[in-house]
Specification:
- The chain is of the alpha+beta class and 180 residues long.
- Helices cover 46% and strands 17% of the residues.
- The protein contains six helices and six strands.
- A two-stranded antiparallel sheet has the order 1-2.
- A hairpin with an 8-residue loop joins strand 5 (135-137) and strand 6 (146-148).
């Protein structure tokens, strides 16, 4: 278990978007939580996956592949992204079962190292089924973060009102004051 604090400015998004958010900008410099096993351990812990998956090189490699596939999915056409996402999804499946508590589904992987990457890709499909128009990139200039808009009206524009939203409002205020 990692004792390091998650340094990212936005956490708690659905797994697919949280994986995309392992890259962010800080003062114009791109940061990457998945630059090594320590950051991977932080990400696994933040997403409740640390007990089931090891923070090792194969998991890291597969997660980076999934992150690139998901980035393509949110930034390009489905035709271009589908083969990349499907390549990740090819490493697992959902197994339906009947348990004492009733019907259940569980993920199975060709190799356990694919688990976190497959779960993130599968989560992206779930978000597409639920509300694809609510998968958003932050409108803040220079921000590369993504979020799932859960606002009532579906009008959220920024990853964080305190960060990007405040900067945008301050910028508009400054522009208005210069005009007058």
């Amino acid at each position: 278990m990692s004792t390091a604090r998650d340094p990212r400015p936005l956490t708690g998004e659905p797994l697919a978007l949280d994986l995309l958010n392992t890259r962010w900008n800080r003062e114009g410099v791109t940061q990457d939580l998945l630059d090594g096993p320590e950051g991977l351990a932080v990400w696994l812990e933040s997403n409740g996956l640390a007990g089931r998956h090891r923070a090792d090189e194969p998991v890291l490699r597969h997660l980076r592949e999934a992150r690139e596939a998901l980035a393509a999915a949110v930034h390009t056409s489905p035709r271009q992204a589908a083969p990349l996402v499907d390549a990740v999804l090819a490493h697992g499946r959902i197994r339906a079962r009947l348990t004492a508590d009733g019907p259940a589904e569980e993920a199975e992987f060709t190799d356990p190292a694919w688990g976190p990457a497959w779960l993130a890709a599968r989560n992206y499909l779930e978000l597409l089924e639920r509300a694809p128009e609510r998968i958003r990139a932050c409108a803040g200039g220079g921000c590369v973060l993504h979020f799932f808009d859960t606002s009532r009206n579906g009008t959220r524009r920024w990853c964080s009102m305190a960060a990007c939203g405040n900067r945008a409002k301050a910028s508009r205020h400054y522009a208005r004051s210069k005009e007058g």
